[in-house]
Amino acid sequence: EVQVVESGGGSVQAGGSLRLSCTASGFAFDDYVIAWFRQAPGKERDGVGCISNSEDITNYVDSVKGRFTISSDNAKSTTYLQMNSLKPEDKAVYYCAVPSSHFGPICGAPGWDGFTYTNWGQGTQVTVYS
Fold this sequence. Notes:
Elements (H helix, E strand, L loop, with lengths): L2 E5 L2 E4 L4 E8 L7 E7 L5 E8 L4 E4 L7 E6 L4 E6 L8 E8 L17 E4 L3 E6 L1
Parallel strand pairs: 2-11
Antiparallel strand pairs: 1-3, 3-8, 4-5, 4-9, 5-6, 7-8, 9-10, 9-11
C-alpha cells in the first residue's frame, strides 16, 4: 500500500522560508516522479513542481521558479520542497502526489501537472502573512 505523508507547514512572514517534507512508502521511490501541488482557498489545486527521482530532473511552474526548490533523499524516501522568498499568494494547502506507475509522467516535459496522480498526502497548510 502506497502511503504519502507531508509535513513542515506553518505560518511565516512574507519574505521568509519554509521546508516541506513528503515521506512516501509502498513503492520503488527511486524510480518515480514525485509532484507537489497546492490549493489556495476557493481555488483549484494547481501544480507547483516535480522531481524525477531516477533522473534527478526538476520542473517548476513559472510563479515559483527561482524561489522554490524540490529535492529528494532517496535513502530516506523523502522529497522536500524548499520555499524561499515566500509571498502572501503562496498561502495554500500543499500536497505531495505520486503516480500509479513509474512509467509516467515525464517531469521534464509539459503536462506533468495534468497527469493523473493516484496517491496523495493529507496536505500541509502554509500561511504567509504580510
